[in-house]
Amino acid sequence: MARQTEPAAGTATIIRPSTLGRLGAAPSSGRARARRFGDVIRRVAARPGGFIGLLVVALILLCAVFAPQIATHNPDAIDLAHRFAPPSLEHFFGTDQLGRDLFSRQIHGSRVAMGVALSAILIGLSLGVVLGVAAAYTTSAVERAITILFDAISSFPSIILALALVAVVGPSLLMVVLVVALTLVPQFGRVTLAQVLSVINMPFIEAEQVIGASKLRIVIHHVIPNTLAPVGILAAMEVPVVIALEAALSFLGLGIQPPLASWGSLLQDGYQNLSKGYTPAIIACLVLAIVTLGFTLCGEALRDAIDPKSRRRA
Amino acid sequence: MAGHYFLRRAATAAISIVSAMTLLFCLIAAIPGDPASVLLGPQASAEFSRQFIEEMGLNRPVYERILLFFANVATGNLGVDVITGRTVSAIVLAALPSTISLALVSILIAVAVGLPLGIFAATHRGSPSDAILAVVSIIFVSMPSFILGIIFLVVFSVWLDWLPILGTGTGLGDQLQRLILPAAVLSLGYIGLLARLIRSSMLEVLGESYIRTSRAFGISNWRITYAYALRNALLPTLAALGMIAGRVLGGAVLIEILFARQGLGTTLYDAIVSRNFPVMQGVVFVVVVIFVLVQLVVELSYSLVDPRIRAKRQEG
Fold first, then answer.
1. Which of B52, B69, B131, B285 is at a distance of 20 to 30 A from A122, taking alpha carbons?
2. d(CA A147, CA A140)
């Protein structure tokens, strides 16, 4: 098979048009879509890595949704009589420097992490897709301007850009989301642009044009749905990266502000009080390590399930 | 023409640097609110904040600030630290060697360990050690480096009590000793990444027909693996090195803060915490320049090493 030339070399995920047949090129009913979704999940779960990943992801999502029900204590309740308590039946993970229950804080931390990750990725993805489609569909001058914007954003290591912006605006939950979203825009944009360029000349698009479908209709009903597979894979692969970035910012005290419990600030609390005991720091490390591992496994299994050929490219 | 291609890539890199800084200035200007009150805190006197705004040039329009910044950069002037009065270029130059050595040693370790592991995994495909390697790699690839850093700190300084590991150190021996742990932390994830990358590209190359032909000619397995397959399998790795170098640079920021090393990362962090705007701007600029240059070098060397790419680019 002749290898496709890739319009944007260096993009992380490349979906070849040949794999698109079963990925929604044709409009389909809701039920067919649901069946295909179930099929992808089954294929993800069929690999041991994907199964573990799905398990972790499901667990984290459950924790985030049902945090108040799962938590054994109020995460912000201060109990100075029981500071630095070791793990026990009363406090599964022990307590912190203010006597707050660490298990409950970790559980509530999943809300912050998932909230930040999902909203940042959603914003970054939407902007990226819009800019990517715009770059493919407009004049070459606009395309060049958009590519320069992508290059400009990706000229910063993302943690540096985030630090620089947070320094000026002051740290807050909203800023963290927006800054992280900004660092994601070029990746989604480039994948979308590459994908649109490879779809745009396919026979079924030409057929639509011949029938007389408007440009807007073609973009919304045919071009964008065809970019969703690689964009979705990228989104899944970015979740652990975003969780790590938010944790890093919060760890440095430049992300989520106290008393809100985030995985990064919990790590910071544990790190600051290492001399009093290492359990809180180690637990915070383990939580972050397991969560990023779970989401990475899940993302990779998803990529392999949707685009088996990319497996060889790692 | 090859020269033409080099020039075009260099121009793109320069545009990236300029547009990146322009973007940063625009974002800062576009953010609502008074930067002086954020930078100085609400307690700052009106007189002081007015003086500050003037000194930072924050009262000028954005385009003027950008032009001024690049005019200064062109003469080697990155600005002056508002707190100590030192020039930002002196501060950056003092911090640079420690960060560069940390990043370089980490990348060296990653290549030196990841490359043999990847080759081993590819030549022993499906063996138990291949499976173990795959599991260990994914664990280290997915783990954020600062998490690994904290685990290492706890293990080595709290449990094993192997001090000193913090700080940059004085004297070559001491500096090297203190470099080992942070560099190891930073490289572990990339060892896994490189091993996986080399394994998969080795497997791809080993499946090519010229390898089969070589086998048919009775060329030794060793020669096929190392002399024929590896050379082509290394190419995607080279491309990945640019990405890795960038991430190492970003990761070094956190690792420096964790291990209390004096470097670009700690300088940036201190500047942010103390609201030292010119230093922050200067450090970010230098990081962007290094980041873009590394990618340029990697991309150019990529086409130098691979004649197929060179040919394709000369056509197009």
1. B285
2. 10
Domain boundaries, chain B: 35-77, 88-315
Distances (CA, A) of B158 to A208, A272, B146: 67, 13, 17
Residue B296's CB: how many other CB atoms inside 10 A? 18
Q: Which of B199, B251, B272 sits opposite A254 (nearest CB)?
A: B272
A3 burial (CB, 10 Å; 0-12 / 13-18 / 19+) is: exposed
Is the link from the previous residue into B164 a cis peptide, with omega within 30 of 0?
A: yes
Cβ–Cβ of A247/B144 closer than 8 Å? Answer: yes
In this predicted model, what pLDDT tens digit does every residue of B15-72 receive, in sequence order? Answer: 999 999 988 888 877 765 565 666 666 666 777 777 777 766 667 777 888 888 888 8
Residues 6+ apart with CB under 8 A from A155: B16, B17, B19, B20, B288, B291, B292
Examine residue A262 and state whether it is found in any structural domain, yes or no. Answer: yes
**Beta-carbon separation of B142 and A165 below 8 A:** no
> What is the C-alpha to C-alpha distance for residues A290 and A267, in angstroms, rounded to an integer?
14
Q: Domain with A135 in it: what CATH number?
A: 1.10.3720.10
Q: Which CATH class is domain B88-315?
A: mainly alpha
Give the residue carrying structure tokens 């670009």. B264
Taking the model in full, what pTM does it have? 0.85
Query: What is the number of structural domains in chain A?
Result: 1
